[in-house]
Write a structure and sequence with these properties.
This protein is α/β, with parallel strands linked by helices. The chain has twelve helices and nine strands. The protein has helices at residues 2-35, 73-83, 86-103, 120-123, 128-139, 152-156, 159-172, 189-193, 203-207, 213-229, 241-249, 266-274; strands spanning 39-48, 54-65, 69-71, 113-117, 146-151, 175-181, 198-201, 232-235, 254-255. The chain has an eight-stranded mixed β-barrel with strand order 1-2-4-5-6-7-8-9, surrounded by four helices. The chain is globular and about 50 Å long. Bound molecules: ligand C2E and calcium ion (3 copies). It is found in: Membrane.
């Protein structure tokens, strides 16, 4: 048993070292990715349940790795947050989204708002507000065409500093959304203290609506909370007609998920909107 214990320990450390090497390699590749144009944004439509129109899309980053193929964000975003590379990625995302909005002028996408994801680490970056302002200015885009999605944790981590940053972003005219709403450990007090425009109900609640009674109750409560606060509410991860019907019934403003559309490259989104395929 002792022998086996030592072997498995060895196996464990080797596994850790291997993982560490792979992480370092991936982070190195990531710096190349930025230089070599391997990153792109996919766009997932958000359906306005009141009008049936698509007014906004969420930008989701994609990495086309030359050898490993498509690397999902769940694999490289956490890594980039640790290494600090996330700042370069964030800057790239902001610019790419603003440039896309500019390119959409005169196309069926010209009315769209883009919601980008930022991580808490990026909020700590003192240059963030300037990056946002400058990118909008360079592209000639009105700030209200941009929305920033942040998780609850990002809002409340380093609360004083972040409150200040978020207020400055909001003052620019950029909309603020709380991502994955309902799964964090924060109090609701920050809804009062932060200038929030949108609540995004976490997919884990939507997934088992309407089968699971509790999830339905929570979803309805969040929708009603948003109505009473006078802010927008969106459900993510909508995959079935039943979920969509439930959300319409309780007057959720927006829905996003595979039922409506998968995230797709800009060109594909333009074609789909032009052909009226999404509404
Ligand atoms: P998120 O912000 O919660 O994004 C929603 C995720 O759910 C996306 O995964 C999306 O493709 C997926 N999704 C959309 N509809 C459905 C559905 O109906 N069913 C299911 N099962 N999934 C659905 P993705 O693109 O792999 O992104 C994962 C996470 O990576 C995001 O979660 C976000 O936290 C992060 N991320 C993505 N892009 C960026 C970025 O540009 N910057 C930062 N900092 N993080 C990003
Ligand atoms: Ca998001
Ligand atoms: Ca989510
Ligand atoms: Ca998330």
């Amino acid at each position: 048993a002792k022998e086996q214990g030592r072997n498995s320990y060895q196996f464990y450390t080797e596994g850790m070292q291997e993982r560490e090497v792979m992480r370092l390699q991936l982070d190195k590749d990531l710096s190349q990715a930025l230089a070599n144009n391997e990153l792109s944004l996919y766009y997932q439509p958000q359906l306005n349940l009141e009008t049936g129109a698509i007014d906004s899309v969420e930008a989701l980053i994609r990495w086309h790795h030359p050898r490993r193929g498509l690397v999902p964000p769940a694999e490289f975003i956490p890594l980039a947050e640790e290494s600090g590379r996330i700042r370069d990625i964030g800057r790239w995302v902001i610019q790419a989204a603003c440039n896309q909005l500019a390119q959409w002028r005169g196309t069926p996408c010209e009315h769209l708002r883009i919601a980008i994801n930022l991580s808490g680490r990026e909020l700590e970056n003192e240059d963030l507000v300037d990056d946002l302002r400058q990118s909008l200015l360079n592209a000639g885009i009105a700030p209200n065409r941009l929305e920033v999605e942040l998780t609850e944790e990002s809002y409340i981590r380093n609360i004083e500093h972040n409150h200040n940053q978020l207020a400055r972003i909001h003052d620019l005219g950029i909309h603020l959304a709380i991502d994955d709403f309902g799964v964090g450990y924060s109090s609701l007090g920050y809804l009062r203290d932060f200038p929030v425009d949108v609540l995004k109900i976490d997919r884990s609640f939507i997934t088992d609506v309407p089968q699971r009674h509790e999830s339905g109750i929570i979803t309805r409560a969040v929708i009603s909370l948003a109505h009473n606060l006078g802010i927008r509410v969106i459900a993510e991860g909508v995959e079935t007609e039943e979920q969509l019907a439930f959300l319409k019934r309780y007057r959720c403003h927006l829905a996003q998920g595979y039922l409506i559309s998968r995230p797709m490259p800009a060109a594909e989104l333009e074609r789909a909107l032009a052909a009226g395929l999404l509404v």
